[in-house]
Task: structure prediction
Amino acid sequence: MNKLKNYLWIVLLTYMFMSLIFVNKLGYLALICMFAPIFIAPFAGRKWCGSFCPRGSFLDKLVIKFSRNKDIPPLLLNTAFRWTIFGLLMSFFVFQVINAWGNWNKIGLVIASMVFMTTIIATIVGIFWRPRTWCVAFCPMGTLATSLSTTEGGIIFDQGCVSCGLCSRSCPMQLNTARFNIEGRVTDPRCIRCGECISNCPKNILSEELANGKLKERLAN
Ligand code: SF4
Ligand code: SF4
Result:
């Protein structure tokens, strides 16, 4: 399942090409990606963002090649900033939909254009800072999903941490993953459960636990 995210960027590029140029009504397909992270968040946190989002895959696989990989400024990680962006983007989107109301083709085009515009922004900020800057600071669905995320499950620590900090350095969301060793679990709701920290821990003491600790899933291999 985890390998799927390596190829989801193809879905995003195909979607934009087809919906903007040929069949505007295909634009509605983006609603799946808009609502899925919100519905999943109360059960599995931001798992959608880390494993199934085509734009996330685009950032992880393509934008990463051009990224300066610089630290994201604290201002952008501020909760007030994220909600301001949420308000601006959603207002713009709703305004456009109201303008196109009654014309289903045009609404499809509005949605597809929104995906295109936000992908451009995600690419620019991803090149400027870390590839996933969009996901942690700008994405309105990500902001909503973060606020709805469950506190259950997620990345858990076993005994044996040597405080090397490699998990923190590998985190695309710029979380201080190692800090959560004290709690035994990454409790930051912005964690997208991508598994990068699991793969990069030299002690192999990290794993992902789904839903109330009943099911563990090793993502490292
Ligand atoms: S803490 Fe680990 S799983 Fe969560 S976003 Fe960071 S690298 Fe990914
Ligand atoms: S990478 Fe592993 S050993 Fe290193 S700080 Fe993180 S959890 Fe601890």
In short: The chain is about 55% helix and 5% strand.
